[in-house]
Amino acid sequence: MSEKFDVIVVGAGPSGNAAAYTAAKAGLSVLQIERGEYPGSKNVQGAILYANALEQIIPDFREDAPLERHIIEQRMWVLDEESFVGTHFRSDDYNKPPYNRYTIIRAQFDKWFSSKVKEAGALVICETTVECLLMDGDQVVGVRCDRQGGEVFADVVILADGVNSTLARKAGFHGEIQAGNVALAVKEILFMPQETIEARFNIKEEEGVVIEMFGKITDGMMGTGFLYTNKDSITLGVGCMLSDFKENPNRTSPYTLLEKMKAHPSVAPLIAGGEMKEYCAHLIPEGGFYAVPKVHGNGWMIVGDSGGFVNAVHREGSNLAMTTGRLAAEAAIAAKAAGKGFKAKQLASYKQALDESFVMKDLHKYRDMPQVFHQNNQFFTTYPELINQAARSMITVDGIDKKTKEKEIFSNFRKSRSLTGLAGDALKLWRAFR
Ligand code: FAD
Question: Which regions form coiled coils (predicted)?
């Protein structure tokens, strides 16, 4: 393995596949190295696929990609211990092709994406771990793998090695992972007959529903839960900041949290009879804008989870991964065409394209969100309880007049949060979402 390539891509998740495909399609010689037995074998996602990001890489992906259901309805639930207040957005617009969002099973999807990477001309090697980057002074010139004679050289190395990003840390491109910047998520896939799913969620063949949840299900920690419908399975999971798991006085484990969520009276009937086929845990980089490290240097670029590109508010990760992968590959293609080398200066078009894209614009918009929610757990405890109490009070018909109920609701809010507290919280929400 002492060949030289134009580009080496480390990792075969959505970011690595997007980068390898784009570069190979443009005629660059590409080596992609994946430590898993096959692409997707090590990867975890909910999983919603956002079509737009993939469309820009493989416009006709719908012809053969393994897609589960297109999503026609999005629910958002705020839960207390036994109820939820929610919104449902369902639109027939989402039933008109080309569809905008799909549920997928990552193991199948990553395998399919990898087959496209190979068709585009890249050399894909699995069951091989990149141990470190090879340097010539301050220039990355290749990688060393865990194979005999495993040194490979390239003009550019694209780090698409996921949230742990050990290579970038070893090379000093970014620091240690901070527990306050990553969420630990656990998820399960429960199999059940297609007809059961369609009856329970009021959907037809190929239509899908997603439910996002927050409130008491996270035991006071900053986090959310989710439930997605696949063809003949349901994926559900919950994730909270790693630092909150460490500090949580109840010492709740992720497994306990998921079991509690499954037992919630609003969730349990939807998953009853489901047969568990898969259980896994994974980190999600949720530090947002301020946690994004330096993204390029002499002979290297960072993409996807490795660079912390996740929009936690909208639960978007794979689309940011694919977009950053594509943009990095385009920068490598441009540098190769310009013929002036692969120093940071020649790869700076990656950073520029990132800044101009929705990726950095969205992360910037929500830049204060992680800090606001981290420091104010009332948004996950007090408010969900108060909102559910208020709904219960107004909807229950019990002979008490509505004016009295309103007063009681207001007084409950005042008992839990002072007027200045309420005004301060409104301001914090504005800051988080502005
Ligand atoms: P990964 O998908 O993590 O891929 C990294 C790859 O690199 C892996 O294949 C790994 O084996 C390989 N690798 C690592 N180190 C090495 C090495 N040294 N040598 C060789 N190979 C290496 N996003 C969405 O868009 N929608 C969702 O619904 C959604 N839900 C999620 C639910 C959960 C529970 C989790 C954990 C994440 C979710 N995400 C979601 C986020 C999304 O999964 C990630 O943002 C996305 O997978 C990032 O892609 P990536 O290619 O950067 O990293």
Answer: none
